[in-house]
C-alpha cells in the first residue's frame, strides 16, 4: 500500500516545484556542439548563467566517453579511461579518428 499521504505529499510537492525549473533554452541537438559559439548563456530558473565551450575534454567510463562523442565533441577529447566495452559503430569512427590525431 502507498501508506500515509502526509508522509509523501511534501516530497511530491517539492518534486513538482523543481520540475518547473530548468526549462530555459533548449539544448543543442546532438552533433551541433561544434557549431555552438565559444561563449553563450543559458537562462535557468530566471538566472542568466554564462557557459563556455570546453577546449579540452577528459572522459571517464563508458557513458561519459559515449556522451562526449554523441555531442560531437570528439575532436576535443584529449583523454579517455575505463572504456570497458566496444563503442557503438556510429561513435567508434570518431573515437579512432581522434586517437589518430593525438
Salient structural properties:
3 helices, single chain, about 20% strand, alpha+beta, about 100 residues
Q: What is the helix/strand order?
A: HEEEHEH
* Main sheet overview: 2 strands, antiparallel
Percentage of residues assigned to helices:
25-40%
Stretches where pLDDT is under 50 for at least 5 consecutive residues are none
Structure notes:
There is one protein chain. The chain is an alpha+beta fold. Helices cover 37% and strands 21% of the residues. The chain has helices at 5-19, 61-70, 89-101, and strands spanning 39-44, 47-52, 57-60, 77-81. Strands 1-2 form a two-stranded antiparallel sheet. Helix 2 (61-70) links the parallel strand 3 (57-60) and strand 4 (77-81). The longest helix has 15 residues, at 5-19. It is flat, with a radius of gyration of 19 Å. The N and C termini lie far apart (57 Å). The model has no long low-confidence stretch (mean pLDDT 77).
Q: Short summary of the structure?
A:
With 102 residues, this protein is of the alpha+beta class. Helix content is 37%, strand content 21%.
Topology record:
Elements: H1 5-19, E1 39-44, E2 47-52, E3 57-60, H2 61-70, E4 77-81, H3 89-101
Parallel strand pairs: 3-4
Antiparallel strand pairs: 1-2
